[in-house]
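Researcher: For the annotation table, I need structure tokens for Erythromycin esterase family protein. Please keep the output clean. Sequence:
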Amino acid sequence: MTSKGHLIQSIKNHSVRFDTYDDLGAIVEAAANKQYVLLGEASHGTSEFYTLRAEISKRLIEDHGFSFIAVEGDWPSCFTVNQYIKGFSKTDARMALQDFNRWPSWMWANEEILELVNWMKEYNESAEKQVGFYGIDVYSLWESMEEIIRQLERIAPEDVESAKQAFSCFEPFERRGENYAISSAYYGEDCTEEVIKVLIDLQKKRKTYPKEHEGDLNLEVNSLVMLDAERYYRAMAKGGADDWNIRDTHMVSALEKIMHAHGEGGKAIVWEHNTHIGDARATDMADDGMINVGQILREKYGQKVYAIGFGTHHGKVIASQQWGGAVEVMEVPDAGPGSWEDALHQAGDHNKYLIFNKQNELDFDFVIGHRAIGVVYDPEIEHLGNYVPSNIAKRYDAFLFIDETNSLRPLFK
């Protein structure tokens, strides 16, 4: 265990101050030769987390040949953006982002993402190899089923009726995952057999479906979402770690399918919350039997993975007081005493980053509380559950700290 004074001094010794995007060169270079660069966030509603990730992503794409950005978002909505930035659809960036209409829509339908989408569109218009934008989350069960139907109507009308018949099993649940979870857990009524039947039929014919405009990838990932979302909602009502583990394992599987589609030399940038990209083995998540994207990728790909955590000391954030509730701008209080963010602030009330390596890892080889803010947040009681005990240098390869942050700017009220 280290003393508070030793930690603060270690941060002073090893951190690098940054005042502009131009000061991030060492972070970009450290990640440049990796295959999977994971960019975190300590909340889903902080402007600087998005803008910094965007700037790092732009440099990785322009200067180091990264292939795509994969985000903690729904596949169908993100694929609309992907089609737009690649010129496959006639719309505009703002219209494309309207597909993010499921709560919490502000996570991706915001001004910060709009600026990135416009940049990606412009980049692709002159790029030798286009970059993509994809969602790898698991929640879009009904949207993915609808997209499968639309695709089959266009490319394989002979398969549509059997798919529609199977999907009708989900109609009684009114597009609400919690209804399906309760039905499967307490009444033994689920649609597992129907989902498996459709997936077997799709798999048999997968190679015959057109590849134009990534139609084959769209069908394949929507099918994966359908399979894993059904499993996720079944597990949700049972408690424990299963639903979390199904979700993060799905995100890795979706990421690998996208990577395979991009072929040899593909390189991925992943945007997700710190709780997904920071290795779970370096937190108390492991004690609860939870795994996450960062852990799975490190176990499979080792040194090809580079994870960058993000944090703040105080500021403002977009969140809600309850799931599905009204969005509001909330004050993020000063980080709790003894926390990782508190130490970073006491080491200098300016923005800074740390790159962890063999020379400094012993200076950070201890467990300390690290703040995590979700889409549901109550600043007044954050000390009761918003700090994840973490060995920071083992959880991440680098860390970006923004002393004072501002809230995201939603596109649609």
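Researcher: And a one-line annotation?
Model: Residues 141-262 form one domain.
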